[in-house]
């Protein structure tokens, strides 16, 4: 039986064959670019930023392998290495594009955290690793858009929903300067009275039933038609189980849904950011559950009104099955929709209606009119 060195000539030939295929691929690509005005070949449209780094390494390993193969002609490992990396690079040339001018990724940004300042002067948001995302739309749900408008809208919501007296609402508007948030002691007294008059409601859904843990339950049905008032309790209990926190690799802690952690980087308004997004040609949807007293439909409407946008589609109801699912009005560059019977976390309270609303957003059309 011959030694491994007897195979060296054949392995050398394979290594140079791969190299030749590389050169053919490069040549075809260059020809196409010259004739196509610099455009990449059509078969090379699947690259991401991380692959740029990977295939660059493969290319240089291939070059080094071929140089070693040329100098050490009897080395089996050298030529095997050259053949493997040469083949890898050929597959790269066949499937991907060497340009960092990568395939654009369409995106619709859902539930943008409105307190974050984004530079969206262009309609393209660059991700890491050179990947480009073309954003077509963004949606803000029950969002705290402006501090002064939000505070005033909260107490006006209380009044319009029969949670506050006329006297209290009149006093709030007389003594509270929401534009400056420079509240007098008299203003604070009226605000406190407004909170007392509203009573011990679940402010995130003023019509939500009370969770009764004493009544026997078989657990949530999972149906999009049902709302379980004890849903938050189930989540709290589950996420505070020691085995769950261990499985999640978290520190042992008393978990709460909202800890009221104070922000230090929150702007007083994101109205300029919303204007900037609209000016960039990106569709903006703002929606509100109409039973939310925490960040109410009133605050959303007040905020939108300050933008002074022309109406493109007049106020009308939209439907979920044979029931009114909410109301919608279209402005130039912005759509505002309500979800009837929903609280602050819209999909938790009205999952079926929320699904219709979000589906309409993704399709780029208003919710159904019948």
UniProtKB/TrEMBL annotation:
Membrane-crossing segments per the record: 52-69
Signal sequence interval, chain numbering: none
InterPro entries for the chain: AB_hydrolase_fold (IPR029058), Peptidase_S10 (IPR001563), Ser_caboxypep_his_AS (IPR033124)
GO cellular component terms listed in the entry, alphabetical order: vacuole
Keyword Nucleus: no
Keywords from the named record: Carboxypeptidase, Disulfide bond, Glycoprotein, Hydrolase, Membrane, Protease, Signal, Transmembrane, Transmembrane helix
One term of GO molecular function: serine-type carboxypeptidase activity
Biological processes annotated in GO: proteolysis
PANTHER family (UniProt xref): CARBOXYPEPTIDASE, SERINE PROTEASE FAMILY S10 SERINE CARBOXYPEPTIDASE
Protein name (record): Uncharacterized protein
